[in-house]
Amino acid sequence: MKTQAVSKGLLAFLILAYSTTASATSLIDLFDLAVENDPHLKIAQANKSAQIEAKPHALSKLLPNIAISASAGKASHDIRDANPEIEREKQISNELNVSLVLTQPIFDLAAFREQKRADIEQTQAELHYRIAQQNLLFHVANVYFTTLSYKDNLNFARSERVSIANLLKVSEKKFEQGRAEAFDVLQTQAKHDMALAREIKLEKALVSQHDELMRVSGRSVGNLMSVTTSVPLIPPSPSNMEDWTNAATTQNLQIAAKKLESELIMQELKITRAERFPTLDFNASYGANDHGGAYPERSLDAIVSLDFNMALFDGNRISIQLRKKQHELERITHELEAKKREVLQKTRSAYLGILAGISYVKALNQAINSSEQALRSIKSGFEKGEKSAVDVLSVQQELFENRQAFATSRYEYILSILRLKHSAGTLSIDDLEQINTWLN
Question: Which residue among 74, 81, 223, 343 sits deepest, i.e. has the most Cβ atoms within 10 Å of its Cβ?
Fold first, then answer.
């Protein structure tokens, strides 16, 4: 009774959770909600917007710098005469200085090279945003079809439990009439208890999956549209796996991001080396000076100069930075190679997954037809007393397992299509829209 109460409670929660909207939610509906609420996409968007400012920030180091400075204070003067017999005189005067300074860099190699770094950082931010978009596309599809799979598994488990319960009633009646053995009743009861436990477990799993669905969408969604029975089983196009691996090597966004990261480190190496070069600045200043006291003085000064600066010794700071950047470049090089191998493995796996999925779906469909025919034959024999309840349970369980595997294989086939395009770097909203036509 307790397990039935738990099952009914979970069922009530599921009914409430999946009836918040009147119409079913499609794959595109879920993606639109995810775009509005996904924090990772918003983070990538904010980073992209921030990096737009990198270029003008780097350019500002080459533009004129105009500053005004002012100071006011008191100065103490201790005046001594060459003749020691004359007493020293101490004077206090007011000091006021105001100046306007213009500085224009003429040569600063590090600042010039920072322009290229800003371009790379901006491209990097745009690429990370595209990566976030593609990751969201696949994640939404994965959550969508995983949820459908969980719901199918629960429905199959519930149908199996009901079928076993009906068989249990018939077995008990036959046992009372002396036409069945106690073993049949006990075995059927055990199967029923196991089916009930499996149903409760799947109900809990579906509740957890619904939480994941809410995390992706940002709010509760209604029933999901299901996959039609006529999903087209289409092999990859192009049909050659090498074409897909070549596309993944050249177009995969994760590989492109690693290449950009390597390019950024190399540019930072150039910037660090440029710090050893001298800098040349043009300076122009115009100022007013007012000195009070016993001998007041006022002046207007205009100064034009070229300032040359070159570090002769910096405590090995630049050498240390260069060694650090070179080690980072070595790390990125190995990470790039590891990422290439990972992407190629995933591409091959997804490609083969589509081909295997097509064959698997077809084989399971045929297995279902065979199991249904076998079950009809076994049930006929059971009604005539030629077969036991255990025989019926065995074939019936095989049928439900085939149905469950068939449903799961179709979802896995669809996800394999998206995995392949994700690895190849070509996954887009168009792919989700095409799959959305396979739902009803």
Answer: 343
